[in-house]
Recover the amino acids of this structure.
């Protein structure tokens, strides 16, 4: 992968992470606004939530960049780097935005992911 591909890959991870965090915020709000037994209320609240409406185009933008990269690089390399980066970025975003716990075992797992991404991207 060249510098442009790495830059676009980083941008893809950034868009995915921000988009997924925005969607999570919207889905959490939608779950609080409706009765637990009403699927239709929940779906309506999700589809009309401003965070969901903002998060979808952000994820879509990341997908468009991903498709551009995919046309120029090996699938196995691009997917590994994006999934690894997304895993790390969303773990930290979840911790800082939603109070999710980052246990030592998760840190170990993320370290192994980083090592795997390095091996695959250099192969």
């Amino acid at each position: 992968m060249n510098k442009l591909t790495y830059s676009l890959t980083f941008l893809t991870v950034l868009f995915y992470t921000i988009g997924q965090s925005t969607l999570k915020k919207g889905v959490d709000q939608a779950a609080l606004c409706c009765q637990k037994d009403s699927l239709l209320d929940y779906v309506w609240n999700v589809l009309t939530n401003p965070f969901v409406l903002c998060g979808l185009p952000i994820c879509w933008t990341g997908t468009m960049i991903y498709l551009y990269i995919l046309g120029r690089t090996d699938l196995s390399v691009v997917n590994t780097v994006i999934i690894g980066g997304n895993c790390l970025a969303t773990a930290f975003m979840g911790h800082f935005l939603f109070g999710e716990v980052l246990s030592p075992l998760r840190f170990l797992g993320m370290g192994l992911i980083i090592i795997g991404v390095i091996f695959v991207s250099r192969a």
Summary: The chain has one domain: 3-122. The mean pLDDT is 89. Residues 3-33 form the longest helix (31 residues).
